[in-house]
Structures are given as structure tokens and as C-alpha cells.
Design a protein that fits this description.
Bound molecules: NADP nicotinamide-adenine-dinucleotide phosphate
Strand order of the largest sheet: 8-7-6-9-10-11-12
Largest sheet: 7 strands, parallel
Distance between the termini: 29 Å
Number of strands: 12
Number of helices: 11
Structural class: alpha/beta
Helix content: 25-40%
Strand content: 15-25%
Shape: elongated
Amino acid sequence: MAHPVLIAAELQPLIEPGQLAGLDVTWLPAGEPTPQGDYAGIVPLLSRWVGGTELKRLPKLKIIANCAVGHDNVDVVAAEMRGVAVTNTPDVLTDATADLAWALILACARRVVEGTLLVKSGAWTGWHPELLLGIELRGRTLGLLGAGRIGQAVGRRAVPFGMRILYTARNPRPEFERDIGAVKVERTRLFRESDVLSLHVPSVPETKGVIDAETLRQMKPGAILVNTARGDLVREEALAMALETGRLGAAGLDVYTEEPAIHPRLLAAPRTVLLPHLGSATRETRRQMAAIAVANVQAVLKGDPPLTPVFG
Ligand code: NAP
């Protein structure tokens, strides 16, 4: 008998029918609430909260296969208490997200968006020695708040740009240090010395709001802040103020606290590059993410261990 499962409707074009063998799929559009029923698995988008209430409505649930590496949209404690497996999609999105972090670093350092807007506005009057001057990355310091898969991939990409690399993490990364000369430091030193600060920690109670008015004050004047991790790591109003006063050089953001809403003051702030949560958005990566999520459902419903459990 086919297992009834809920899968985010937006993933349907990315999934081959063969991957769904043995599953009786109800496609769940993003705007609809999680229904009640005897579903054995759910593959939610990262925008769907799956917590105690949802778990109560899904008494037969065996697996929540999140289609993302972050899992802050899932109450993992409630799931564990119910014996429901929680899986994510690590590794396959590392390169795509690290590439996007670099797109933001370069766009901020070299004022790519301002340049495009100037050309499109028709106000460009020609080459000028002081037009939209940016900063040179060679010899500058890249600070990585978090050096897991994506943080390290961002750091490795900094080598050919001639940057010095500092990072914070609870556990040292000896291979990373050996390979590219990255140095593990305390957070305050990371904030003080980084010309570019890139965020790569998960959203958990200890990291929420880590970039607030106080940490922004500690940052180097003119520094660039890049966030491709999660929006709630940053206090958006404090960031907007640091941009308004000119304390911060620029901010390149892919994620926001209340997506898709963005704090109006941040939206109006100068020197920002704002993307609509595109970190993993390549065709190849999104297909692989969907494939891993469905493969996790298949494994657990067959009685096998999940392929990529959130907690091993
Ligand atoms: P990862 O490999 O698990 O790395 C997470 C890093 O954060 C590690 O350095 C880890 O090192 C540190 N960390 C973990 N828990 C922490 C805590 N409680 N306090 C402080 N540091 C902690 O994850 P990843 O694959 O690199 O992904 C990182 C994050 O990027 C995800 O959680 C997700 O939110 C975000 N992401 C966003 C997009 C996007 O579309 N923009 C795409 C993919 C991922 P220690 O344990 O040694 O501290």
C-alpha cells in the first residue's frame, strides 16, 4: 500500500515521478495551512513552520524531510519527543550558497548595483576618475562567523582574492587552517578586524540577534556585512542605522527576519544589495535538494535510517 505523504507543491517540477514510487502524494501549496491527516511524511519548504500543533494534527508522522540545510522552521525537540525523524539537505547547496555570498561581497565592494542603476537611469555622464569608487579586496580581512560547510567554502574562495581569513566557531577547523591559513579568533576580534564579515551560523537561540547595535559599533568603520545564513541573526533596524550614519560601508543580504517582509528602514537604507533568499537557487542544486528530501522520506518509510538526519 502506498504511504500517504505531504510534499510542498512548489517542488513538484523538480521531482522525477520515479522518485515518488510507493508514495501517495498530496501536494501542499505554500499558502495553505498544514492539514490534519494520517500522513507518514512531510517535505516542507523552509517557510513552513512544523511544530507542536502540526505534529498533533499528523499523528502518524514518521519523518519531516526539510528541503533546506537550515531547520529553524522545525521544532526538532517536539519532533524528537514524538519519535519523528527530522532531515535536511546538507552539502549539495554548499557551493551555490558560497558562490552567492561572493556575489554579494563583490557587489558591495565594487558597487555593482549602484552602477547598474546609474546606467539604467540615463544619468551616467561618462568615465570619471572618482565615479563609484569601491574597495580593493587584496590584503583585506574576511571574517567568517561560523566555519561549517558554507563558511569554509566562502573562505576557500577568498584565497585567490588575496584576503586574510579569520573565523569563529566553537570547534577549531585544523584542516581549514592548514589549507588556507585561516585563523580562529574570538568574536570581538572578528568584529574589530574584519573588512568583510560574512555570517554562516545557523539560527538558534545563541545566535539570534548576534549582529546588533553593539556588535555593529565594534565593527571596523566602512566594513561590509554579508548575510546568506538566516535573517534573524541581524537586528535589521540597528543595521539600517549603521548604514544611514555611514558607520558601515555596505550590507549584502540574502535573508531577512520576517521574509518576505523587510524592515522599511533597511529597505530605504543606502549601500545595500538585497536579494530574495537565492542562496541555493541554481537549477542543479534545487533538484538535488528535492531529491535528497524525497530519498529521506523513502528511506524512513521503508524502515531504514534517514540519509541526512539533522542530529546524527
Ligand atoms: P554547518 O556546516 O552546520 O555550519 C554551521 C556553523 O555554525 C559551524 O561553524 C558551527 O561550528 C557553527 N554553529 C553551529 N551551531 C552553533 C551555535 N549554536 N552557536 C554558534 N555557532 C554554531 O551549516 P552550513 O551547511 O554551513 O549552513 C549554515 C547556515 O546557512 C544554515 O544553518 C542555513 O541557515 C544557512 N543557509 C542559507 C542558505 C540561503 O539560501 N541563503 C542556503 C544554505 C544554508 P561549531 O559547531 O564549531 O560552532
